[in-house]
Design goal:
It is built from three helices and four strands, in the order βαβαββα. Strands 2-1-3-4 form a four-stranded mixed beta sheet, with helices on one face. Strand 1, helix 1 and strand 2 form a beta-alpha-beta unit. The chain starts with a strand and ends in an 11-residue tail after the last helix.
Length: 85
């Protein structure tokens, strides 16, 4: 599975999606928008990339944190964590 994650500095959801990958024991490539590429370059490649993080799995856009978590749960790669009290 090839995973690319596009993030911006200071983004809490970006940090959480990377933590999700660690929980699922998945390797990923990380690209920092503004350093590794411009926002315009990202949107040129992925016109639906409107927010961050933006995750691509096996060449297919998945979306942000919520969509990525759902994708990984649907594939059985990560389980939901129930919060206590």
């Amino acid at each position: 599975m090839k995973i690319s994650i596009y993030t911006i500095p200071g983004c809490t959801y970006c940090t959480k999606v990377k933590e999700l990958m660690v929980r699922a024991d998945l390797e990923y490539e990380h690209f920092l928008v503004g350093t590794d590429l411009t926002r315009e370059e990202l949107v040129r490649s992925y016109p639906l990339a409107k927010g961050f993080p933006y995750v691509i799995i096996d060449g297919q856009p998945v979306g942000g944190l919520t969509q990525t978590a759902k994708y990984l749960m649907d594939k059985g790669l990560v389980k939901s964590r129930k919060k206590n009290g």
